[in-house]
Predict the structure.
Amino acid sequence: MVGECRAAPDQISPAYNHWHPLEATWFETAMTKRVAIVQSNYIPWKGYFDLINGVDEFILFDDMQYTRRDWRNRNLIKTPAGTRWLTIPVEVKGKFHQLVHETRVSDPEWARRHWSSIVQNYARAPYFRNLAPRIEGIYGAASKEPSLSRINRLFIDAICDVLGIGSRISWSMDYELLDSKTKRLVGLCRSAGATRYLSGPSARHYIEPRIFEEAGIALEYADYEGYPEYPQLWGAFEHRVTVLDLIFNAGPAAPRYMKSFG
């Protein structure tokens, strides 16, 4: 085991801080609280866990509308034939406006199939044998869970533990929400006592920096560029696959190939 779970790529505006968690002074750390707010994903990639590790509290924003063909219920593994989707089948017929936390699994056999695919494609990875019992156990627990949100949370908590991430993880449903997308984020930040908000880079397309500024909350963006490559099975290196690829291939050295661990 390598810490508790805590609360993508181009140059950011010079008006906002870059993501350098290790550069904070003791005084800044003691007087501030950094929060990130993201919908839960299924076995997310390493950047998702860097975001968790870069904050004091990570809020799963699962009272947002469920989006199809997205990362909520699927992710990529690496195989000899290239990347392959592992997708949790969910109930969508007639449920066009359901929220992530309302989304239910439609076929309980998904977990057995996914674990079989992982064994088939990662059995040769150097640390697979060490980690397989733990991950297989999570799949066993997930197979009995009908809620997509709770399945995602099972994996997120377990992987944080493997990586040694100690940030607090909470649900957006625990907090009062406001209307517009940015106002809801600011409202969650205020409810959580945040003074700094760490966002994924793609959110620049919809975030209104002025609202954060007026609320006295510093807006920062994570940088997903420049990840080092690690020893990986099956041909050309792929960064945007599930973090399981990293931990099976790198084991206790996995944090060295992430950005939030320095």
About this structure: The chain has one domain: 17-257.
